[in-house]
Structures are given as C-alpha cells and as structure tokens.
Design goal:
By secondary structure, the chain is of the alpha+beta class. The protein has three domains: about 200 residues, no CATH class; about 210 residues, Sandwich (Immunoglobulin-like); about 120 residues, Sandwich (Immunoglobulin-like), CATH 2.60.40. It has ten helices and 35 strands. A hairpin with a 7-residue loop joins strand 15 and strand 16. Helix 2 crosses helix 9. InterPro entries: Ig-like_fold, PKD_dom_sf. This is PKD domain-containing protein. It comes from Marixanthomonas spongiae. Keywords: Signal.
Length: about 575
C-alpha cells in the first residue's frame, strides 16, 4: 500500500487495542504517528510518502539484521520482504521498482533503485525516494561512498533534501552552481557522510557477518579516495605576513586527482576558526561569501564549496603559543549516481612561522608533482633547500629557488611518500618542513561499479557489477558482486571473463575473474547474484577491464564491462 491513510492507523490501533492518534500538520501535509508495535519505528509521511524512522544506528543495524535473517531463513523468499512492507503500510524503494516491473505504475527511465543501494534489505527499508530517518537526520542514500543528510524537523526538510538530490546529480562546477551549493550547505545545513570510511553504515556486511557495531564509530578509517581514482590536495600561497601585528593573508585553492571528465564537488572547512581573533574571506570563487567572518560561523557546519578563496587572519589574541590553522578540503565525485567517491586533505599551518610545503599534481598518470616552499615571503638573505622525496631518489638541492618538480613511481597499489625539505637560512624561524604524497597507477581501481537497465520481452530488467574495498574491521581486502534482476520465468546465467589484478606489496599480478567467480545459473523469477569476498586487494585495470555477461533462456544477453576514465 503506497499511501498511509488515517483509516489504516485507526484500524491498526483498534486491532492492537492500543491507543494512538495521528496528527495532521496542514502546512506540511505530514502525518506523525506513534510507534505501532515494538519491533519497528514508525516515521512521518511527506507528500504521501512514508519514511521509516530509527532512533539510532544501533537500532537500524538490529532491524536490518532481523529482516536479513528472516529473508535468508526463508530461502530468500521475496514474500518475506513484501510482508515486512505490508505490516508497516510502507511503500519502499524495492516495492516501487517491483511495481514498475509489473506495470502497476508507469515506468520512469530516470529511476534506478540500484543507484541508491544494491543491498536488497536496505532497499526494502528505504522509501521510494531513497530516504530514511536515523536519529535526528533524514538521509538520502547512494550505493557508492557518499550519502547526504539534513536535520529533520518537518516535511519542508524532506522537500529540501529532495531538491538537493536533484541539484547534485547535475552539478557542473560553474559559479552559479557553487553559489547554489553554498546556500544548500550553509542555509539548509545539508551535510555528507563518507560511508566508505565509516563501517557503522555497512548494514549489509554487519548482517552477513553478524558483527554488531552500534552507534559509536569504532575507529578512524583511512581515507578511501584513491581506491576509486580520487585524491584531494590543498594548494596554498602565503600572500602577506606581518608577524609584528600578527596578521596573515593566505590564498587557498582546491586541487585534486580525479577521473577525466568528472566535475568534483568541493568543500573547505576550518575546524578551529573560533580560536582566532578574525578570519575574513576577502576574495574567492563564490562572490556571496566575500566578507564572511569564518570565525563567527559554526565550525561543524560552515562550508566553503568553491574552488579558491583568500582569507585575512588576525591571530593577535595569542601572546605566546600560536595554534596551527586547520583547513580541510573534501572532494566528492559522482554524487547520487550509485558510484560516488570522496577524499579529504588537511593543511595545518602554523601562523607565526607559516613555513610549509604546498603541493600540486601536474600529471598524476606520470607521477609528476610541483612543490613550493611557502613562508619565505618578506625574508631577506639567500637560502638553500635540500629536498628529500621519500622514494629512494637522491636528495635534490636548490639555491634561492622555492619551487621544484619531482616524478614519483606509480605502483598498482597506492603508496605514500614522505616529502621533506631542509632549510639553510640564517635567523629563520624554521629549518625544515614536510608533507605526504600518494602515488599510484591512476588507471587502476579497487572501487567502482557499472549498471544497466532495459525492457526486454515485456519486462524491465537490471544488471549491476560492483567492486568494493572492504573495511579492515570486516577482514579487509575486496568484495565483488554481480546482480541480475529480471522478474521473468526462465533461467538466468552470469559468466565472467578477463582479469582483475591481485596486489602484492606495491605491484599487481593478473588473475582471472572467472576463477574467483565461476559461472552461475538459476531458474525462476528470483534475482540472481554472485558474491566474492577476499582479504586480498584486487584492482580493475581500466585499460584492460574484465567483463560480465548476463543471459536468459528467452534470448536476452548483455555484457557489462567496467568503463571509466583514468585519473589525472
């Protein structure tokens, strides 16, 4: 049942002999119901669309596990999922997909439930717009790494998040788009969660392994961007520095390694802005942000989603120890397309002696980088710099020149290099600086997916292939799955061909995908799936990607190949 009516609420209450009431807010057209039974949480209804509501991550993990167990114990009978939805008068993402297949509702060429999730249980728990409430937040899901959320108060928040979802799918990085993003991030306080660095949101694996985590994040997970071809980098330039009056002007710019043709979405944060007397944005790629005093904003929510900005910082409140200015850059790609990716970089700049290395990728495919030692502006006298790039190459020495380029190895498995510079200069505030660089074969991916949908022989069908890095908490390595949903009688088959690359240290060796995932067939309407889990790290080579062929005895055949552009 798609619409939760008042009559339904009263009937349930009458049958259960429980007192409950529904309250209509005419302004928002929202029905707020009490919990109707002890085994689930009822949520609001916005625009005739019910939303499941869970009080915490612990609660949704437990609810997911309970439904997962029921589904598995039934032999994966879809009637278990239908009964779960019917018991709650809930119209799910799964149900919407099924109704389109059966012709109960018009087919929407832009709709694909697997863009939101390829976890069948979560697909049953998300509503038809891919949304769910957990704690105080309303979330819209994505089958990649980045999900979005807004603090939920009423149905206007649902409408805002739905509008935002439509906006990010067409984000083009233009000035107008940056301005619009600035409003969504700061006026509406829409934020992101990188679920590829937070195992609490991996409900599927938690249920499969019976590995409860709960509400508290167990540990900090390493950033995940290089696994899907993305890496964020902050480039900075010290424009002026007055150590006597304790003011400094800094230009900060977003740089990144990203798949060719992608249009990354950017977000700058200053986590300790309130520590300083003032931080004023005096110029930047977002005109409406000019004049904003960063130190007056909420450090947990204020975002500058533009390509660059210039700030004037007054740190005169400090008479002795001056803290570092902490600037974070988050870069996202592929938002709400089912293959989203995120990466983050941090700049810690000591303001009373802002000597630091600014880095910029020049050609990531070749491993070529530009390094600049900042903080020499205004100083007098000559200097000598000794650069050590941490890759075993000889130390390079420069005289009175603060820039240098270097080419790193590009191994299959990303490798981190510690770059340092030793400074020879009289009466200078610092004698060394350092940074880190990741270098890898930017045509290799550990995390990516491809999907396909069409109508064949009178019925919709969907295909998906996905490779994902597993959390170390769950054993690490790689998880690969192939999905074939075609609600039509007959035999479905999945066959793999080509190689994936097994990482050993920083090198990789080819291994047949079909040896990891042998051919599989199944009769009936139930979806066909293949899953492979390994503690080893496997990579896809975009120059020679593997393929997966899906066939049905009614003549259908389609081959999906991992298609993507190398990063630069």
């Amino acid at each position: 049942m798609k619409h939760l009516k008042l009559l339904t609420v009263f009937l349930i209450c009458a049958i259960a002999l429980v007192s409950c009431e529904a309250e209509i807010d005419p302004a928002n057209q929202e029905i707020n119901t009490e919990v109707l039974s002890g085994n689930f949480s009822s949520g609001p209804v916005c625009d005739d669309k019910p939303i499941m509501k869970y009080s915490s991550l612990t609660e949704i993990q437990n609810a997911h596990k309970a439904l997962y167990d029921d589904y598995q114990n039934s032999g994966e009978d879809v009637e278990i999922l239908r009964a779960w939805e019917d018991d709650r008068s809930f119209y799910s993402l799964r149900k919407k997909d099924e109704d389109m297949d059966l012709g109960n509702i018009p087919s929407d060429p832009n709709f694909d439930s697997w863009s939101y999730t390829s976890d069948l249980i979560l697909e049953t728990m998300l509503n038809e717009d891919g949304m769910i409430i957990i704690g105080e937040y309303l979330y819209v899901w994505d089958d990649g790494c980045v999900i979005h959320r807004i603090a939920y108060d009423n149905c206007s928040d649902y409408k805002t998040l739905l509008q935002f979802a439509g906006f990010v799918k067409t984000y083009d990085g233009s000035s107008a788009a940056e301005e619009e993003m600035f409003k969504y991030r700061n006026d509406e306080n829409i934020s992101d969660v990188d679920v590829c660095t937070d195992p609490r949101y991996d409900f599927e694996t938690i249920s499969e392994l019976n590995y409860p985590i709960g509400n508290d994040k167990p540990y900090d997970v390493e950033k995940s961007g290089t696994k899907c071809g993305l890496e964020a980098h902050i480039t900075h330039d010290i424009l002026t520095h007055d150590p006597l009056n304790k003011t400094i002007s800094i230009k900060v710019e977003a740089n990144y390694i990203a798949p060719v043709g992608s249009e990354p979405n950017l977000g700058f944060y200053i986590s300790n802005a309130a520590d300083f007397a003032s931080i004023e944005i005096i110029d930047g790629s977002i005109p409406s942000a000019i004049g904003v005093n960063w130190e007056l904003q909420d450090a947990n929510s204020f975002v500058y989603p533009g390509k660059w900005f210039i700030i004037d910082v007054d740190y005169s409140t400090f008479t002795t120890m001056v803290p570092s200015l902490l600037i974070d850059l988050v870069v996202n790609t592929g938002l709400l397309g089912g293959d989203s990716c995120s990466d983050m970089d941090t700049l810690a700049l000591l303001l009373d002696c802002p000597v630091s290395i600014s880095k910029k990728p020049l050609n990531a495919q070749l491993g070529k980088w530009l390094f600049t030692l900042e903080g020499l502006e205004g100083s007098t006298g000559g200097y000598v710099l000794h650069w050590d790039f941490g890759d075993g190459s000889p130390v390079q020495t420069t005289y009175n020149t603060n820039t240098i380029t270097h080419t790193f190895p590009t191994p299959c498995n990303p490798e981190i290099f510690n770059v340092s510079v030793t400074i020879e200069k009289e009466n200078f505030c610092k004698n060394s600086a350092g940074t880190q660089v990741s270098s890898w074969d930017t045509c290799k991916r550990q995390q990516m997916s491809e999907k396909h949908k069409e109508k064949y022989d009178g019925r919709r069908l969907k295909l998906k292939i996905k490779s994902k890095k597993r959390f170390d908490l769950f054993g690490g390595g790689t998880k690969i799955k192939h999905l074939f949903r075609y609600r039509k009688k007959g035999e479905k088959s999945i066959n793999s061909s080509g190689d994936v690359y097994l990482a050993a240290g920083t090198s990789c060796a080819p291994e047949s995908l079909s040896s990891l995932l042998p051919a599989v067939s199944q009769s009936g309407k139930k979806r066909l799936k293949q899953k492979f889990k390994s503690n080893n790290n496997y990579f896809i080579d975009l120059n020679m990607p593997p393929s997966v062929t899906f066939t049905h005895t009614n003549g259908f055949s389609k081959t999906l190949t991992y298609i993507g552009t190398c990063s630069k």
